[in-house]
């Protein structure tokens, strides 16, 4: 079983991203279980969402406490005291950032400037860019167990509005993800 | 067809497939996405039903009393404070023998203010004369809602189908959506023998003198006494049509268990996950999953009790002064049946507190080490 956590802020689309990625892995042939962190969502407030994938039906219904992978939509969340303890010490992180971040020793970190890609593709506004599909495109590249076509089909089925812009963001981010190695 | 969807969306699909004719509901977290989706598909014409907008849960149930009395199939959904607001009408529905089906998305009762899951809302309605079912997955909630209409209309007893707020309601997972034709084969349109009809006027539930009232209650009790047979028969037909098999009590690794855990709802799912892990490391732990509180599936429990097993109930609800409701109900029922086994009582996960695999292992450790209190409440993860 693989456990993935999404860290965002209200309005960035982290919960919807967890649902799209669930749909994508389902199309890849996995059993999936996605859920939000059961909070009352407000624009700007920290939002956490979870995704489990496995070959068999998933019976574990607690929250995720030691994720193997994380999509970090809002990079300032890494400074929260609860961030690192919620991940495995060698977890794979995908950061929404244009430059390398400090203090992430031990993690397998990749970077994508999802904010710029979202704005280039016309998703959201400068004050509130909708970065979720760009984050997912980059994740499909680094995850290694998800075909891009399944993600694109999932985006199409889950994003009935601005579908073409979201597809463009996925493809752009898939090609642009950076490890700064 | 397999699809990924939330527990609440599974409810809406089930209601549509069951060809419900009148829906009335008032939004409340975490139920809201059920009434939103139903209102949307009634509005778009995808579903041929009347969605009656109301200003409260009390009015939603009052609307269904009127609608159901005319012989149509009716549905509502609510949670917590909304269910409590309906309470006087819950008695009315069962006393009037109206086969209303309601989904209650389990949410703790305030105060203090909360939107998160526990079962205290529905278990506290156990004396209102409704059948109560508890589900552990999105598939089971869809299947249970479809079955509930058949059971309710056969017994003329209303059905409450419960699933856990957020842990099921907002969780997306893979479920198999049956074809409409399959559901039509299993569930015929409602045929009401007596109904409000201006061409055949009757009075329903009028003032009843003491010389007759007890007989009405006796008949409700008699319906509950034959309910398990109707439920089991419905599951048999359901399995024949859809290939999915249900029982009132589902037993997992129970026969040779040294520790037998009893749980319901989404907590039972995490218990099952943990039991399988513990089995791999050689610990003889089993699970009895209760899918009903009313009628209490006593026979299903008795079938799996052995002298070897230490028994513990995990209750995600609390009746202050007595404890967990499933524990109290089982203790009373087993005593009535001449069983004098000790049932340990664990209260866990109130107000949405997570119930983890580590919590379940700790419960088993406490039972093994005899550090669990055999008489009082064992509080799981409580900060004293």
In words, what does this structure look like?
Chain A is built from 5 helices and 6 strands. Chain A has helices at residues 14-27, 114-120, 132-143, 148-158, 163-176; strands spanning 2-9, 31-36, 46-54, 67-72, 87-96, 108-112. A 6-stranded mixed β-sheet of chain A has the order 2-3-1-4-5-6, covered by helices on one side. With 181 residues, chain A is of the alpha/beta class. Chain B has 384 residues and is α/β, with parallel strands linked by helices. Chain B folds into 2 domains: 2-240, 3-Layer(aba) Sandwich (Rossmann fold); 249-379, 3-Layer(aba) Sandwich (Rossmann fold), CATH 3.40.50. Chain B has helices spanning 7-17, 32-44, 57-69, 80-85, 87-95, 120-123, 138-155, 180-186, 210-225, 227-242, 265-280, 298-302, 325-336, 357-368, and strands at residues 2-6, 22-25, 50-53, 74-78, 101-106, 131-134, 159-164, 172-176, 249-252, 259-263, 285-290, 292-294, 310-315, 343-347, 377-379. Chain B starts with a strand and ends in a 5-residue tail after the last strand. The A-B interface holds A 18-19, 22-23, 26, 31-36, 38, 40, 57-63, 65 and B 2, 4, 29, 115-116, 166-168, 170-174, 266-267, 269-270, 272-273, 276, 352, 354-357. β2 (31-36) of chain A pairs antiparallel with β8 of chain B.
């Amino acid at each position: 079983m693989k456990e993935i956590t999404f860290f965002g802020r209200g309005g960035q689309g982290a919960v919807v991203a967890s649902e799209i990625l669930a749909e994508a892995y389902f199309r890849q042939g996995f059993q999936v279980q996605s859920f939000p962190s059961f909070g009352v969502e407000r624009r700007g407030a920290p939002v956490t969402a979870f995704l489990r994938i496995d070959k068999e039906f998933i019976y574990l219904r607690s929250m995720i406490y030691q994720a193997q992978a994380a999509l970090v939509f809002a990079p300032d969340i890494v400074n929260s005291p609860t961030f690192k303890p919620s991940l495995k010490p060698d977890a794979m992180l995908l950061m929404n950032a244009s430059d390398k971040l400090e203090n992430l020793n031990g993690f397998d970190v990749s970077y994508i400037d999802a904010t710029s890609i979202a704005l280039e593709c016309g998703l959201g506004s400068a004050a509130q860019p909708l970065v979720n599909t760009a984050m997912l495109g980059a994740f499909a590249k680094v995850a290694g167990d998800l075909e891009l076509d399944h993600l694109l089909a999932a985006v199409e089925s889950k994003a009935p509005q601005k579908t073409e812009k979201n597809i463009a963001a996925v493809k752009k981010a898939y090609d642009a993800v950076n490890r700064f190695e | 067809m397999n699809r990924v969807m939330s527990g609440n969306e599974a409810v809406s699909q089930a209601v549509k497939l069951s060809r419900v004719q009148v829906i009335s509901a008032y939004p409340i977290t975490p139920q809201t996405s059920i009434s939103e989706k139903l209102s949307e598909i009634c509005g778009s014409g995808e579903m041929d039903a009347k969605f009656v907008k109301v200003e409260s849960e009390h009015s939603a149930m009052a609307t269904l009393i009127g609608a159901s009395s005319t012989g149509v199939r009716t549905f509502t959904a609510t949670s917590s404070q909304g269910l409590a607001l309906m309470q006087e009408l819950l008695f009315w529905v069962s006393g009037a023998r109206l086969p209303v089906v309601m989904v209650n998305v389990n949410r703790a009762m305030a105060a203090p203010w909360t939107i998160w899951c526990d079962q205290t809302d529905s278990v506290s309605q156990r004396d209102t004369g409704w059948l109560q079912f508890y589900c552990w997955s999105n598939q089971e909630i869809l299947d249970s809602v479809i079955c509930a209409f058949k059971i309710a209309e056969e017994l003329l007893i209303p059905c409450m189908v419960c699933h856990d707020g957020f842990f099921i309601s907002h969780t997306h997972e893979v479920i198999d959506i049956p074809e409409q034709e399959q559901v039509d084969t299993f569930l015929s349109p409602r045929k009401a023998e007596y109904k409000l009809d201006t061409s055949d006027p009757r009075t329903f539930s009028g003032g009843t003198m003491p010389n007759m009232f007890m007989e009405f209650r006796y008949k409700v009790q008699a319906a509950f006494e034959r309910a398990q047979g109707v439920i089991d028969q419905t599951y048999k037909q359901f399995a024949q049509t859809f290939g999915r098999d249900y029982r009132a009590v589902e037993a997992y690794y129970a026969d040779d268990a040294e520790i037998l855990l009893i749980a319901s709802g989404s907590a039972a799912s995490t218990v099952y996950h943990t039991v399988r892990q513990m089995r791999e490391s050689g610990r003889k732990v089993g699970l009895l999953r209760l899918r009903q509180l009313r009628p209490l599936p006593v026979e299903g429990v008795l079938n799996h009790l052995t002298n070897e097993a230490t028994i513990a109930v995990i209750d995600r609800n609390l009746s202050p002064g007595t404890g967990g409701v499933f524990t109290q109900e089982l203790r009373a029922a087993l005593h009535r049946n001449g069983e004098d086994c000790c049932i340990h009582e664990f209260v866990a996960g109130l107000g949405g507190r997570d119930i983890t695999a580590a919590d379940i292992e700790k419960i088993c450790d406490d039972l093994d080490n005899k550090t669990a209190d055999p008489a009082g409440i064992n509080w799981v993860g409580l900060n004293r």
